[in-house]
Specification:
- By secondary structure, this protein is an alpha+beta fold.
- 31% of the residues lie in helices and 26% in strands.
- It has a five-stranded parallel beta sheet, sandwiched between helices.
- The longest helix has 21 residues.
C-alpha cells in the first residue's frame, strides 16, 4: 500500500517504521529528520488542515493515518474523509472523548462505564467546595488537551488546591485548564489498551504499561511518558475479557447511539486492582511511548487491519500477539518544564547496530553531521527479546551507548513486571 501518516513524534516514527517493515510505501507529514531515515517526509504545519488535506489528495494513498490528538480533535479526519480518502482516525465528534475529560466522564456516566467518581468545576470557589467532598486528596485534571502534563496526582489537599488554582487562576495549561475535573484517586496498577475498531467490531493490541512520572520509583511530576513495556501482565486474559464486556463494547455502542461512531484507535487507560478494571481516561489515537514496544514486538502485520478498520470491514477474530519489548525514553534537561533545544546527542549509530534494538526519534533534528535535541522527550530506545527481562536489559544496554547532553532517563522501566 501507499500510506500517509500525519505527525512528527515517536508514535509516528514507530508507525512509519512498522509499515515500511511490512513492505509499504510510507509518507509522513511533517515527519522529522529521524523519521526521514525510514520514510519520505513532507514539511507541513499540522494546524493547516486544508494544506494537510491537499497533500494527502496529491499523494493518492490507499490509507491515511492521523497520529496526534490535536488534529483529530480539530477535525482533520473529517476533512480527509470528505475529500474521498480512506482514513484511520476518529471524527472530531468521536475524538471529543480525548479532547475534553469532562465530556468523557459524562459519557462514561451515561453509559455505565466503570470509572472513578468525579466533579467538574469551572471556578476556584466551587473547586474548593468540591475538594471538601473527597475523603482523600483527589486527582486534579485539566479537562482539555495538555500533552499528557495536565494531571496532578495530589498527595495532600494542599497540593490539590495548588493544582486547581494553577489551572483556573494561573493559566498553567491555557484554555485546556479552564474546566477542571476532580477525580477520586484509584489504586492499583495502570495499563494501556489500544483498540483498533471500525466503529462496531474491534481488535485489541497486546496491553502495555506506561511510566508517567519523571523519576525512578514513580516520583516527580507527570510527563507524557518516560518509558513503557509490553505485554503488561497486570492485564491478563481474564481482565481483558472483562474489559471487552464492560468497557469496550459499551463504549463503542454508546458512541454509535450518540451518532458519532469511532473509527481508529481507541486508547483506554485502565486502573486494575484485584482483577477489576476501571477507566482512567480515553484517548483517540495510539499512545506514545507505549505504541513503540507494542509495534516493535508485534508478531503479525498490522497495516492491513488498520485499512480494514478504516473501510468498515475489520475482522475481530484475528490474533495480534507480541514478543516482549520495552522502550526507555531519553528526556531533555528541564522536561517536563521548559527545555532549551540544541543539546548534543551521541551514540545513535552505535545503538542502531545493536541487534533487536530500534531507536525512535521524538524530539531531535540533524545539525551538520550530528544530532541535537529539538523537544522535551527526545528518543525512545526500544528493544525486544524472548522474555521481558531480556528485552529490558537489552534496552538499557542500548541506552548505555547513547548520551543526550544534560538529559536523563529512568532506570526502572518495567521493573514492576519483573517482581515475582
Amino acid at each position: 500500500m501507499r500510506i500517509v501518516i500525519f505527525g512528527s513524534g515517536g508514535r509516528e516514527h514507530a508507525l512509519a517504521w512498522r509499515c515500511v517493515s511490512e513492505g509499504h510505501e510510507v509518507h509522513v507529514a511533517p515527519g522529522s529528520d529521524g523519521i526521514a531515515a525510514d520514510a519520505t517526509c513532507h514539511p507541513l504545519a499540522l494546524t493547516d488542515l486544508a494544506a494537510a488535506t491537499a497533500l494527502a489528495r496529491a499523494l493518492a494513498p490507499d490509507l491515511v493515518i492521523v497520529g496526534p490528538e490535536q488534529p483529530l480533535v480539530d477535525g482533520l479526519a473529517d476533512r480527509l474523509r470528505a475529500a474521498g480518502l480512506t482514513v484511520f482516525g476518529p471524527s472530531a465528534a468521536a475524538a471529543e472523548l480525548e479532547g475534553s475529560k469532562a465530556v468523557a466522564k459524562a459519557f462514561m456516566a451515561r453509559h455505565n462505564i466503570p470509572t472513578a467518581r468525579y466533579v467538574r468545576v469551572n471556578s476556584v470557589h466551587f473547586g474548593l467546595e468540591a475538594l471538601r467532598e473527597f475523603a482523600t486528596p483527589p486527582v486534579v485534571k485539566a479537562s482539555g488537551l495538555a500533552a499528557g502534563k495536565g494531571v496532578t496526582v495530589a498527595e495532600t489537599f494542599a497540593e490539590a488546591e495548588l493544582a486547581l488554582r494553577a489551572c483556573l487562576e494561573g493559566q498553567a495549561f491555557g484554555g485546556a485548564g479552564e474546566t477542571v475535573v476532580l477525580e477520586e484517586r484509584l489504586t492499583g496498577e495502570e495499563a494501556s489498551l489500544f483498540v483498533i475498531t471500525d466503529g462496531e467490531r474491534w481488535l485489541c493490541l497486546p496491553p502495555a504499561q506506561d511510566h508517567k512520572r519523571l523519576r525512578d520509583g514513580d516520583h516527580g511530576p507527570n510527563t507524557g511518558g518516560m518509558g513503557a513495556y509490553c505485554p503488561a501482565p497486570v492485564c491478563d486474559p481474564r481482565v481483558l475479557a472483562a474489559v471487552e464486556a464492560e468497557v469496550i463494547g459499551p463504549t463503542l455502542a454508546g458512541l454509535r447511539a450518540e451518532g458519532r461512531p469511532f473509527v481508529g484507535c481507541l486508547f483506554i487507560g485502565l486502573m486494575i486492582d484485584d482483577g477489576r478494571a476501571k477507566v482512567i481516561e480515553y484517548n483517540a489515537r495510539f499512545g506514545d511511548p507505549e505504541i513503540q514496544p507494542v509495534l516493535f514486538g508485534l508478531q503479525q502485520p498490522i497495516a492491513a487491519h488498520l485499512l480494514a478498520a478504516a473501510r468498515g470491514r475489520l475482522d475481530p477474530t484475528a490474533a495480534l500477539l507480541a514478543m516482549p519489548a520495552a522502550t526507555v525514553v531519553f528526556a531533555a534537561a528541564g522536561y517536563p518544564g521548559r527545555v532549551e533545544p540544541g543539546a548534543a546527542i551521541t551514540g545513535l549509530a552505535t545503538a542502531a547496530d545493536m541487534p533487536e534494538v530500534k531507536v525512535f526519534h521524538a524530539g531531535t533534528r540533524r545539525e551538520g553531521d550530528g544530532w541535537v535535541t529539538a523537544g522535551g522527550r527526545v528518543l525512545g530506545v526500544c528493544a525486544r527479546g524472548p522474555t521481558l527481562a531480556a528485552a529490558i536489559a537489552r534496552a538499557y544496554e542500548a541506552c548505555a551507548v547513547i548520551e543526550v547532553a544534560g538529559g536523563h532517563h529512568r532506570s526502572d522501566i518495567g521493573a514492576r513486571a519483573l517482581v515475582p
